[in-house]
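My current task is to audit a protein record that another person submitted. I need someone to confirm that the token line plausibly describes how this chain folds. Take the sequence as given and treat only the tokens as open to question. This is what I was given:
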Amino acid sequence: MKRTGRALTMPGCGTAACALLLLFGLRALAVCPHACSCTRTHRVVDCSSRGLSQLPEGLQHNIRSLNLSRNRLQDLDGLLGHFAHLRTLDISHNQLPRMPSRLPRALWEILASGNRLRSLEKNDTAYQWNLRALDLSANGLERVVFINNTLPDLRLLNLSHNKFWTVPTNMPSNLETVDLSHNFLVQILPGSLDRLPRLSRFYLHGNRFSSVGEPAFGRLDGLRLITLDDNPWACEDEENMTGLLAWTHQTSARVLGCPCHTHHVCGEARPGSTGAWRYASYTQRPLGAGNRQAGRLPLEAVTSGGWSSLGQPDDNDTSNFSLPANHLLFGGGFSTAGTSTTSTTPRSRKANKAKTGGVRGTNLGLRTCAPHALLLNVLLATVVYSVL
């Protein structure tokens, strides 16, 4: 090869032929590992469900998305840091006992559900300045430690199906969706939720709450949806339940799974023309693989069992609630029909039916009256009117 004037030529090679040779030579360097499948540019790599016990060789340094899910990986410490352009990392359903160390700082999305994680230490996420979504569901997590003022871009945090007893403290302040469903939660420590002004979706169903202090949710000014279904609420303890019940009927958020009430929806709920309780529709596509395009981050909502790209709810839409195909979203506790269902056990329903007045009777009015009670009110009104 020699330089002639401004052109770079090779002996016995025309300009067009050399260009083709260089092009094919560069393409030859971009080799997809034989255990994986890649896009044409080799920057989106899928190595899922290949029985891998170690990181495959031959990955390009400029890959943007790497799927290592459903393998037998046990240790990735220090093996991913040089992928400086990596945005999406899926290491879910492996055998990892801890979060890999020295992860790329360009990451937007980490999916690590279904591993053997027991804790999340402060250094595991201390340098993830660009992270927007973190899925740690279905592990054995008992505690997570976040440093104040870290993870400034984190919007979605999925900690469902773990072993938490209390709501984690110091959660990143810009979170919009938090899923803590299906844990062992029994309390919310004072101040735990005071620094979450943007939190709009909060999933707490499937836990062990018997009561929650009155000011627990009072500082969540941006809240639009909260789930409280499938918790053993101590409805007979009116002193501790009054504050929560009052909040559920004063908040502008939609409350799914109203504690101690036969109706399943409160907050902004209102009866439809057929008597069925309805609320603004959250139309969702099915969760799971195929719903998340490689390299694109779902920023609208996180739910138990997968990530979903959801549209913003229309406050003027009173159509029926539509559940996604993946029933893990609400742990099977919510009806897919327009009529709401109740998760109250027969024993608790009997106790509530026997109770008159108290907390239940003071806040609900005609909104939760049984049909015969409503008919009685109409008859009384008719009698009074005829007398007058």
Remarks:
- The first strand starts at residue 2 and ends at 4.
- The chain has six helices and 20 strands.
- The two ends are 111 Å apart (CA to CA).
- Confidence is low (pLDDT under 50) at residues 1-10, 19-28, 269-370.
